Amino acid sequence: MAKFRNRLIHIYWEVDDDIIYNILQEDIQDIERLIDKLIGSLRKGDRTSV
Question: With the C-alpha atoms ordered 7, 13, 14, 16, is the resulting torsion angle positive or negative?
């Protein structure tokens, strides 16, 4: 997913909407874990662990 992030940030005009949709569908658990970690860190006031 890191490679896709770099492509999305630096070459966004070449990103296909279908590819984004598929990545979101396949990697939704990773995204949910990241969000949970972010919320937990914000609740603790710890912004260095993310």
Answer: positive
Radius of gyration of the chain (CA): 14
Dihedral sign, CA of 1, 32, 50, 42?
positive
| Enclosing H/E stretch for 45 | none
Sign, CA dihedral 33-38-43-45, equals positive
Q: How many folded domains does the chain comprise?
A: 1
Distance CA 35, CA 29 (A): 10
pTM across the whole model: 0.46
With respect to residue 23, please indicate whether it lies within any of the assigned structural domains: yes
Q: pLDDT tens across 20-35, in order?
A: 888 888 888 888 888 8
